[in-house]
Design a protein that fits this description.
Strand order of the largest sheet of chain A: 1-2
Radius of gyration of chain A: 22 Å
Oligomer: heterodimer
Helix content of chain B: 55-70%
Number of helices of chain B: 5
Radius of gyration of chain B: 23 Å
Shape of chain B: flat
Order of helices and strands of chain A: HHHHHHHHEEHHHHHHHHHHHHHH
Number of strands of chain B: 2
Largest sheet of chain B: 2 strands, antiparallel
Structural class of chain B: mainly alpha
Distance between the termini of chain A: 62 Å
Order of helices and strands of chain B: HEEHHHH
Number of helices of chain A: 22
Shape of chain A: globular
Structural class of chain A: mainly alpha
Strand content of chain A: under 5%
Largest interface: A-B, 58 and 71 residues
Chain lengths: 505, 144
Amino acid sequence: MTEALQQIWYGLTLAATPGNLFYALVGSTLGTLVGVLPGLGPVTTIAILLPITYQVGDPLGAMIMLASIYYGAMYGGSTTSILLKVPGEAASVITCLDGYQMARQGRAGPALAIAAIGSFIAGTVSVFALALVGPAFANFALSFGPPEYFALAVFGLGLSATLSGGSPVRGIAMVLVGVLLGTVGLDTVTGLDRFTFGSLELADGIELVPLLMGMFGLGEILFNLEQKGGFQLLTAKIGRLMPSRQEWKESLPAIGRGSVFGFFIGLIPGGGAILGSLLSYSVEKTLSKEPEKFGKGAIAGVAGPESANNSAASASFIPLLTLGLPGNAVTAVLFAGLLIQNITPGPLMMTQHPDMFWGIIASMYFGNIMLLILNLPMVGIWVQLLRVPFWILGPAVLVISVLGVYSLRNSWFDVYLLIAAGLVGYLFRKASLDPGPLIMAMILSTILDTSLRQSLLMGDGSMAIMVSRPLSGIILGVSVLVVAYQFYNHFRGRKSKLLDETATG
Amino acid sequence: MKQMLMPTPLMATIIAVVALFFAIGGYRLGLWEGEMPGAGLLPFATALLLLPLIVRVFFERTKAEEPFRLRPLMAVFFLAIYAATLPSLGFIIPTIILITVWIRVLDGLPLLTGLAVAVALALAGALLFVVLLQVPMPLVPKIL
């Protein structure tokens, strides 16, 4: 415990320089600024702003800025959920249920405030929990062999593909497409060129940042060109910001529970924020003395899921930093941010780059503080941004994306890749195919490839080694069960829906 | 034929072609080299798993799905021309033309509004990235 506190203190001293505080300030402002723009969710926001962190130069400063952008973007997403009923990401859908109703009742201020305060408390809890759990996780991960890594990667991908809310068949198809795209480039084992068409730009694989910015940023802009009339801003006035005594009373236990649930769920690769907020919402509804108020403006329905969302998001840094496994689309983008800074996350990060490891953990805390002291009082200004018309927003994102992508390697090829990825992102969106699992799978493809081949070598060409080792066997078994359950649920749901339609039709 | 051009069947077909490409490519790279698994094993195995799933996606009900609209496809066409002209014309001129056309044609707003926004965004972008952040993006045509 004392050691964990010492390590946090070490991280805080690294992060709390005037320069780093400035990066935190700029990051949280930029993150909120872009995240609050209608139609741009946290993943899109971070993807668009990622190249700016490259300009910082100092890796820790860049990561502090990125973490602040992340928190700003999350808060921006909550704001659009509450005021516009436009969730920036799947996890914010839950916030829309009661947050939007509160805004309709003239309680937008308390809803926004409790979202920020809940996120701050959850962030604080999870940062300390991270410091406690992180080293143990990294030590445990050091004992992992190739079969365990293979099993964990399969587990994370299986969960993210089937828990994103859509069709599990489409989710898994996207994961497999991601694995295929991830194999492009020079094979590290044999040195053979794989699917590069002799292009030098593809020798290191498909560059991740243009792909992310294209699929999430540009793809979103193209998709939004179809929408007519834009979004309806509910209110330009926020009014009273602080929750009443009764609202505090209802919110605080929900924040506490949400913080704890969210943390444990975030530790599971592929679990992440969606599951955290869903679980928190159902728990709050079950425990409430007035469950009928849920969906009609219950503040606990905002406080719990927003805290769980934030706590899970922070906890998902554990599998990212200690195992090198990004658990969701957001951490996949952050993974790309680390790679830009020449840092490869994994079990050795804590010993090889302790400054980065503890600095990043501390920086998350700074992101949270900035959000609370800067963004909350400025909520009136952010609300005005909701009025930015789409015909300015789209071209602005385009300009930032082109310049940002070019700045990474000064390469026109990356700009072409950005535009191609934008088209693909739009097509995916039209066909209800989620690019999140694809990006995660692309990142995990290298781990899957090397761990599969090493495992097969260890097992003399037999896959039996994957199930004969207890840990990998258990992880693979659980993966199969979870995925099978999701398939069962999906098809059972569809069947009953069809039966209902037949009965009523 | 019209049904084939709906988003899901179209994307499923494209993905199936990609999967076949990787399956054949993976096989050619080698599935097993002597004692070792080959470079083509993972792409080959993944493509084989993907093919039946994508056939299933192809036939999934697409009742709620909306057909492609013209505006995003026009935007992609403009973007392709934009990307092709960037290396020779630099950032400023293609960006101003693209945004003006984008706002005029795709959003149906007056030409002058489009031009004003285009000039403002192109200059702001150039100021932030090229002047302040020193990204070596060429701003004007090579001959100037």
